[in-house]
Design a protein that fits this description.
Elements lengths: L8 E12 L12 E11 L2 H6 L8 H14 L5 H13 L4 E9 L10 E7 L3
Antiparallel strand pairs: 1-2, 2-3, 3-4
Helix pairs in contact: 2-3
Length: 124
């Protein structure tokens, strides 16, 4: 997903901060901690561009709610697993041909921020 291919457009949700109980180290799942999320999806938005109708595009408010809900409700040891759950939600819409999610735990490692990116492309 390095750029929009023919027939592919991009919606990106940046700056999502959700609170969740994720981590493999002792105590990490005891209290919610901030998780910063960026979700990028690719789909063909030609119909939406022509119609100017929300039904013809991906509802990014619904995607945002799904991301926040997953981070808040799931409890995973690995950010990779949280990312997989978010990819599952994003790919439920058959129009989505590819998705990438980046998750970060700000300030976890003495000020450093671990970041994990996972992606999926729908088989042709």
């Amino acid at each position: 997903m390095t750029g929009a291919a023919a027939g592919r457009d991009t919606i990106a949700l940046r700056g999502i901060r959700a609170w969740g109980r994720h981590g493999a180290d002792p105590g990490e799942q005891d209290v919610p901690q901030p998780i910063d999320v960026e979700l990028v999806i690719e789909f063909d938005a030609a119909a939406a561009r022509a119609s100017d109708d929300l039904r013809d595009t991906i509802d990014y408010a619904a995607l945002h709610a799904a991301v926040v809900g997953i981070v808040a409700q799931a409890s995973c040891r690995l950010l990779e697993r949280v990312g997989e759950l978010i990819l599952d939600a994003a790919m439920r819409d058959e129009r989505v041909v590819a998705a990438r999610v980046t998750l970060a735990k700000p300030g976890l490692l003495a000020g450093a921020t671990p970041v994990v990116t996972v992606g999926r492309t729908r088989p042709a």
